[in-house]
């Protein structure tokens, strides 16, 4: 019997592939850049399993062309690059990697928040440029965390992990989410629910942790910045397109807000022509929220486990469209 065929769209870190090799012929894209769309479109016509990354556009055309595809396994928690409805319509389960990256991403969020609040990146550049001449009373002043208000938008796994970090720094915590959480959870976490406009106008730091969808696309717009404090700092480690970046630029140059720290941009990578790159009060990192050795290894293994389950026609351990199983019942 011929083996199943699998395509993995990039080299995976520290992952156990033996079990996969037992049941499938595996081809891995080994270049640093993702496979071009035309290559992916061609590949999916011949495969049973696809392990992809958030840099791959898995759209309706691609899913419809993948006649023998049994599983799409994404090595990421976010899956806005995949047309899940198209996959569900074809009965193809889609896997993701929730949970294992929650702490790493919350840590990075906290690092960015602190770096922006205390101007760490600007200060480091200042020293290396030879500008440190003396201790000055007004040099590189930032904002206190203690006593400030943190507004968390999207109170899922990562949003809640950020709230746990904030408690150790004595911040008041407001959150806004699609669904208000139970009062027991609010109380135990020491957080208060606020409507979006209230959160924006009362927070000193606003951090984004919602998933990207048609509902959250440009959730943060000109209007949001008008509501925010002129001393506020925006942190985005969710998805770039949740923020209207031109509106953010306008808000930063007109001092509607004080700064921003972004791990995600729209598009990615950021264009070197982006006006945001010219501003000192913006920190930008290259989508490294989950980038720790341990976390990436766990994500890769989880994605491989989802892939193997899909190839064996077993329920994926982490599936985003469980409806595909209901269709079979
Ligand atoms: P999660 O547990 O599913 O949390 C996502 C939250 O988004 C949910 O709590 C949901 O609210 C909220 N949400 C959805 N639609 C909303 C809306 N219209 N308005 C307000 N809130 C809305 O996912 P997670 O594991 O925390 O990950 C969150 C996101 O972070 C991912 O989707 C991904 O895009 C991003 N991420 C980025 C990195 C990175 O490297 N920078 C790493 C990991 C994840 P309810 O709970 O109220 O329904
Ligand atoms: C990273 O951005 C993820 O969604 O896992």
User: How would you spell out the order of helices and strands?
Assistant: EHEHEHEHEHHEHEHEHEHEHEEHH
C-alpha Rg (nearest Å): 22 Å
The computed structural class is alpha/beta
CATH superfamily membership of the largest domain: NAD(P)-binding Rossmann-like Domain
Mean pLDDT: 97
Bound molecules: NADP nicotinamide-adenine-dinucleotide phosphate, glyoxylic acid
Number of structural units classed as domains:
2
Shape: globular
- Strand residue content: 5-15%
Per the CATH scheme, the topology name of the largest domain is Rossmann fold
What is the CATH C-level name of the largest domain?
A: Alpha Beta
In terms of per-residue confidence, which ranges show pLDDT below 50 for 5 or more consecutive residues? none
Strand order of the largest sheet: 8-7-6-9-10-11-12
The percent of residues in helical segments reads 25-40%
Number of helices: 13
Instruction: Please count the beta strands (DSSP E, at least 2 residues each).
Output: 12
Describe the structure.
The protein has 329 residues and is an alpha/beta fold. The chain has two domains: 4-100 and 293-328, 3-Layer(aba) Sandwich (Rossmann fold), CATH 3.40.50.720; 102-284, Rossmann fold. The chain is 35% helix and 15% strand. The strands form two sheets. A seven-stranded parallel beta sheet has the order 8-7-6-9-10-11-12, with helices on both faces. The chain has a five-stranded parallel beta sheet with strand order 2-1-3-4-5. Strand 3, helix 3 and strand 4 form a beta-alpha-beta unit. Helix 5 crosses helix 7. The longest helix has 19 residues, at 293-311. The mean pLDDT is 97.
């Amino acid at each position: 019997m011929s083996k199943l065929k699998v395509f993995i769209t990039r080299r995976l870190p520290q992952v156990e592939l033996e079990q996969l090799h037992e049941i499938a012929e595996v081809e891995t894209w080994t270049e640093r850049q993702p496979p071009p769309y035309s290559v992916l479109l061609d590949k999916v016509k011949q495969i049973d399993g696809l392990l992809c990354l958030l840099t791959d556009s898995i759209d309706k055309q691609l899913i419809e062309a993948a006649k023998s595809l049994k599983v799409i396994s994404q090595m990421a928690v976010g899956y806005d690059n995949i047309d899940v409805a198209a996959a569900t319509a074809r009965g193809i389960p889609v896997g993701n990697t929730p949970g294992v990256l929650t702490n790493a991403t919350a840590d990075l969020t906290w690092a960015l928040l602190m770096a922006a609040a205390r101007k760490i990146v600007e200060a480091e550049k200042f020293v290396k440029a030879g500008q440190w001449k003396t201790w000055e009373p007004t040099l590189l002043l930032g904002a206190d965390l203690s006593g400030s208000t943190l507004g968390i938008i999207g109170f899922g796994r990562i949003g809640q992990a950020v709230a746990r970090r904030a408690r150790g720094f004595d911040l008041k915590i407001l959150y806004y989410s699609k669904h208000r959480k139970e009062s027991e959870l609010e109380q135990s976490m020491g957080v208060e629910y606020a409507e979006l406009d209230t959160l924006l106008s009362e927070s000193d730091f606003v951090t984004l942790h919602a998933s990207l969808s048609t509902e959250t696309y440009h959730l943060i717009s000109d209007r949001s910045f008008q509501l925010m404090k002129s001393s506020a700092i925006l942190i985005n480690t969710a998805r770039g397109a949740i923020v209207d970046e031109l509106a953010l630029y306008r808000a930063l140059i007109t001092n509607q807000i004080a700064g921003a720290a972004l791990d995600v941009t729209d598009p990615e990578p950021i264009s070197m022509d982006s006006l945001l790159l010219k501003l000192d009060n913006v920190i930008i990192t290259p989508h490294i929220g989950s980038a720790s050795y341990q976390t990436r290894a766990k994500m890769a293994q989880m994605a491989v486990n989802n892939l193997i389950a899909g190839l064996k026609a077993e329920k994926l351990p982490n599936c985003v469209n469980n409806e595909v199983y209901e269709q079979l019942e």
